Amino acid sequence: MSDKLRSRAEERVDNKIKFYRNFTAYIIVNTMLAIVNWLFTPEFWWVAFPLFFWGIGVLKDFLIAFVFAGNLHVESYRERKIQEEMERLRN
Q1: How far apart are CA 77 and CA 85, in angstroms?
Q2: How far apart are CA 10 and CA 16, in angstroms?
Q3: What angle do CA 9, 62, 21 make, to 5 degrees?
Q4: 46: domain range?
Q5: I need a labelling partner for 51 at 20 to 30 A (CA). Which of 13, 25, 37, 88 fits?
Q6: How many domains does the chain fold into?
Q7: Is 0.70 surpassed by the pTM of this model?
Q8: Distance (Å, whole) CA 54 – CA 34
Q9: Residue 38 — φ and ψ, nearest 5°?
Q10: What are the φ and ψ backbone dihedral angles of 72, each rounded to 5 degrees?
Q11: In angstroms, what is the C-alpha Rg of the chain?
Q12: N-terminal to C-terminal alpha carbon distance within the chain
């Protein structure tokens, strides 16, 4: 049980670290892109496209790390599916 609990805790921490890294990169890169956009093509704000589409990915990481943190058990799902596939292969 302790190993399973540790595994789930590690997964949750990894998801939070992934979110923070992605969010930090999102802020830094999109700030630079906005400055470049403002300096060179202020008539068309193309920076909205990476802001929007990358933002979808950041939102997904946030939801996984903080909102659905207790409900997404990737390892247990994976293990269950492996068992199902092994059962199919046996038959």
Answers
A1: 12
A2: 10
A3: 80
A4: 2-90
A5: 13
A6: 1
A7: yes
A8: 14
A9: -65, -35
A10: -105, 100
A11: 20
A12: 31
